[in-house]
Amino acid sequence: MHHNIAALIVAAGRGTRAGGDLPKQWRELAGRSVLEHTLDAFRRAGIKRIILVIHPDDREKANRLVAPDVTLVNGGDTRVTSVRAALESLVTDAPQHVLIHDGARPLVSASVINDVRDALRHAEGAAPALPVVDALWRGTDGHVAAAVPRAGLFRAQTPQGFGFSFILQAHRAYEGEAADDVEIARAAGMEIVMTPGCEDNIKLTYQADFDRAERLITHRQERDMDIRLGNGYDVHRFGPGDGCWLCGIKVPHNRALQGHSDADVGMHALTDAIYGALAEGDIGRHFPPSDPQWKGADSRIFLRHAVELMRERGFRLNNCDVTLVCEHPKIGPHARAMQAELAEIMGCEVHRVSVKATTSERLGFTGREEGIAAIATACLGRNAGDT
Predict the structure, then answer these.
(1) Does residue 66 sit in the same domain as residue 203?
(2) Which residue numbers mark the site Positions MEP for the nucleophilic attack (predicted)?
(3) Structurally, how many domains does the chain consist of?
(4) Distance CA 218, CA 17 (A)
């Protein structure tokens, strides 16, 4: 990984042009703060050292973002003084290269970041840029005053990357304000290479930018969703008893289901559906019937194991559907209790769990009331970037 490079994320501004009373980098975007999205963008690009430059007033909020890869530094009154403070904080353990990025650009892609990083192998500095394609005007008092030739004009983006010692010396020698760090680097005589920018790497400024960013994030999440389906099927025969365990509820009946465990046919089918979605075989693989410790075992143990395995892999349960096939006992009166019980065991919302029943019109072994069958489907989801 890229240990010899640090990302310096500038988030000390007070900008509230987008509306609301929060500076834009702390506003919520698709359920998380702008800065959380920005930090994750650099993590996805393999950057292991991040300096987050904040306003002292935001220290409490920023403490929630501190992680082994994130260090907080108090910024100054201007962007230039904020970046300089962060650079100086790195002097005692200096990286070879530094990437300086606007905290309010949460949609920067790994490819934009990595193109800048790769260019630094041969250049003193590099920054993403987009050619200007629109006609340009100079305006005065709301009127067009002049056309401006756009040939050779580019829109600057971040992260802007530099050799650490180069940009530190450039900052120490610079006086006054600057639009970005490329301006400071060029004032010190550095050669800056342009790398490909991206239209989605927008700097959030106005409310319309937030609306667009929300749409882009939602689209990315849908595009990158890893969805897995699994099915399960189980059968248990009737034997003597006073009721059947079905989906975690004991349903009164003049017989019971027989099996190595508690013979909860619905829970077994659902457990196998989750294992199936994970390509992890079935209950028999994880809890062999030949092993006496599982004799009479509570089926909750099996379902909880499947759910733990699902979470370890970074998946969540989108929904599941269990169908019990029997003439008797009647399932309808107990279906809601079964839903609630399964949701409780799996630690999910009840609306993600469906339990229903059907008869087989008196056909076959279920029709002859020799036993009960169950089929189940489980749908799991995760973002493809997750592990």
Answers:
(1) yes
(2) 150, 203
(3) 2
(4) 23
Same domain, residue pair 53 and 195: yes
Whether residues 265 and 133 share a domain: the answer is no
How many angstroms separate the CA atoms of 113 and 185, rounded? 19
Domain range for 368: 225-383
Give the CATH number, domain containing residue 174: 3.90.550.10
The H helix count followed by the E strand count for the chain is 12, 19
pLDDT tens across 335-365, in order? 999 999 999 999 999 999 999 999 999 999 9
Among 185, 207, 223, where does a domain finish? 223
Enumerate the known binding-site residues for a divalent metal cation: 234, 236, 268
Find, among 23, 21, 25, 22, the residue nearest to 10 by Cα: 25
Query: Where residue 330 sits, what CATH number does that domain have?
Result: 3.30.1330.50
Residue 5's closest CA among 54, 66, 46? Answer: 46
Claim to verify: residue 249 and residue 353 sit in the same structural domain: yes
Positions in the chain short of pLDDT 70: 1-3, 15-21, 383-387
Binding site: which residues? 234-236, 260-261, 268, 282-284, 358-361, 365, 368
**Per-residue model confidence as pLDDT tens digits over 79-128:** 999 999 999 999 999 999 999 999 999 999 999 999 999 999 999 999 99
Last residue of some domain: 204, 223, 242? 223
Which positions ≥6 away from 222 have C-beta within 8 Å? none
DSSP 191-216: -EEEEE--TT-PPP-SHHHHHHHHHH
pTM over 0.85: no
- Count CA atoms closer than 13 A to 264's CA, side-chain side: 27
35: helix, coil or strand? helix
